[in-house]
Amino acid sequence: MNILLILVVKPVAVVDGTRLATPETRARSRQGSNDWDELPSTPPADPRDCWSPRWEAAVAVTLAHLLVASNGKRVSVPDGPVAKAFRRAIDGLLPPGPPQRHLTLAGPGLPTDDTDIALVPRHPQTGQAWPCEAGTVVPLASDVWTYLAYHDEPFSS
């Protein structure tokens, strides 16, 4: 199976390790909040019951990071929405056998577990990943992460 992953990256001005505000980020910060407790949520499917382009892009980017974080070792994925979003792809792309690494959903309002790989939200204004004590942190767009963390209804994958 060949997979082509194309990432579009917007240049960001950085001085001494600090991201500089741009007109776009200033406008977003006036409209949104920098509070982790106020993260928006985006449902996975559009009205036709197909994955939304926002979800496809966010999951594809995060999947690439998860594969790197796995170091080529099998990863266990928790049941529920995270499994619906990632398990099939991870199982198909990593070698068979018992899991050697474990993925956990971590972030605001969730218990901090000691885990190999934590799937955490990336803040929409600052771009910072949620800090946690996991061996490896893999960020996911905050609106997609929020849906995975706080919505129990099933969705198509």
Kindly summarize this structure in a few lines.
By secondary structure, the protein is an alpha/beta fold. It is 31% helix and 15% strand. The chain has 4 helices and 6 strands; from the N terminus they run E-E-H-H-E-H-E-E-E-H.
Radius of gyration: 16 Å
Sheet with most strands = 4 strands, parallel
Shape field:
globular
**Low-pLDDT residue spans:** 4-34
The helix tally amounts to: 4
Secondary-structure element pattern, one letter each = EEHHEHEEEH
By secondary-structure content and strand pairing, the structural class works out as: alpha/beta
Proportion in β-strands: 5-15%
Measured distance between first and last alpha carbons: 19 Å
Task: Give the averaged pLDDT, no decimals.
Answer: 75
The strand count comes to: 6
Strand order of the largest sheet: 3-4-5-6
Q: Percentage of helical residues?
A: 25-40%
